[in-house]
Amino acid sequence: MSDTYVGAIDQGTTGTRFMVFDHDGSVVANAYEKHEQIYPEPGWVEHDPMEIWENTKQVVKDGLADGGLSPDQLDALGITNQRETTIVWDAETGKPVHNALVWQDRRTTDRVEEIQEADKVEWIREKTGLECDAYFSATKVEWILDNADQIKTGRARPEDIRDRAESGELLMGTIDTWLIYNLTGNHITDVSNASRTMLYNIRELEWDDELLEEFSVPRSMVPEVRPSSDEKTYGTTDADGFLGAEVPVAGALGDQQAALFGQTCFDTGDAKNTYGTGSFFLMNTGEEAVASDHGLLTTIGFQRSGEPVQYALEGSIFITGAAIEWLEDVELIDDPAETAELARSVDSTDGVYFVPAFTGLGAPHWDGRARGTIVGMTRGTRREHIVRATLESIAFQTRDVAEAMEADSGVEMTSLKVDGGAVKNNYLCQLQSDIIQTDIARPKVDETTALGSAYAAGLAVGYWETVDELRDNWQVDKTFKPKMASGDADKKQARWEEAVDRSLDWARDGGD
């Protein structure tokens, strides 16, 4: 056992990482590569699927070199991915017909509003557990089929995309499906990713014919749905391919479900929050798909081979880490590591509140036309105040979701497990504890997204025998306890809600 490992491909919004884990859940190899963010128009966000695939191959090779490992030492590969991001490709050539439409992309907001006006929101929510929003895959694949007609498909001339889809020549999938297809040749997704498409019935556990018809997606385009940890495996890599070995691809989870799995949230009521480009707060609700009355999503958490699906409640916050990236973009900071020092250098935000609704607001507001807003500035406002307000916005948005989560689940949280790049920032973790008024537990291995997909793959092939082994691996690095008086936290949160109100329903056609 000591000389074999499990690898995880973590394909995220800004880049692709490959990590290798040993039996203790420790990282033994690591490589990362960024990819281009493409913004064709305001509110549109795209990625180049071929760039992502090339980067994936590169980081796998680089990661193995980093650890001094050979591909033969990998017992299995797991995949975790940015969810909802959607690709359509030619089944014969394997070439995309258009760039991937990223989960942040808002170009289908008008289509979503048509659905809302047709009074179909509840109908969709009952089937999928999702809010009808441009965030999810259904309107994205519909847009590609309607608008990519003049894009070359890898053949000699442009073809009518929708006709080709109807005739079974095109495939669609989220990023996990794209990677599994390129790694194994098989068109497969897992239940967690399927549940994010707005085309999958999470109670019947099958693609929904009525939803496929609503969004004009031929059934022949959608992938086979498998457990997140699959003893049958999704296939193997090609011995003659880039890896030079046959390695089973045996686990896949959408990134937030992977973090839930990696944080060992296997029991009803276990909760975690992942801080990445956005932040995603999930609570395991067991075998019950709990409907939300407070703007949360009901989603599939994970499924192991031969076991029932485990459901989760989710609060999706679109912009958190991306707000810190924006500070860099506008040159208010040179490096994200500066934010804690700058924030500490002032006693408060001096009344400044920043609502980072760059791509609308997710849970619990669900306003695709909300836009980024800074309120409360005076002539005395300095960059330190704006930086502090940016960090506070992450904490406020998380409290919005935490309160909704408690109301829907009836479970009062005493501790929240956190992960993702931003949790390395002690200032942010303490601020989060103060604003939510609960303990924040940061694990020693904070790349829990990659770890979760490795766990899923490793369990499938017997590298780990039971989830108890995974629980034993989980260790706290640091716990943050509230230092702020609850009354002060409540007042700040109330003022935040006023700032949110000013960001709502801002974007209109033409940007006016």
TrEMBL record:
Catalytic class of the enzyme: transferase
Domain Carbohydrate kinase FGGY N-terminal span(s) in chain numbering: 5-262
Residues given in the record as glycerol binding sites: R83, E84, Y135, D255, Q256
Pathway: Polyol metabolism; glycerol degradation via glycerol kinase pathway; sn-glycerol 3-phosphate from glycerol: step 1/1
Positions with a binding annotation for ATP: T13, T14, T277, G321, G421
One GO cellular component term noted in the UniProt record for this chain: cytosol
Reactions listed under catalytic activity: glycerol + ATP = sn-glycerol 3-phosphate + ADP + H(+)
Family per similarity comment: Belongs to the FGGY kinase family.
Protein name: Glycerol kinase
Species per Swiss-Prot/TrEMBL record: Halapricum salinum
Gene: glpK
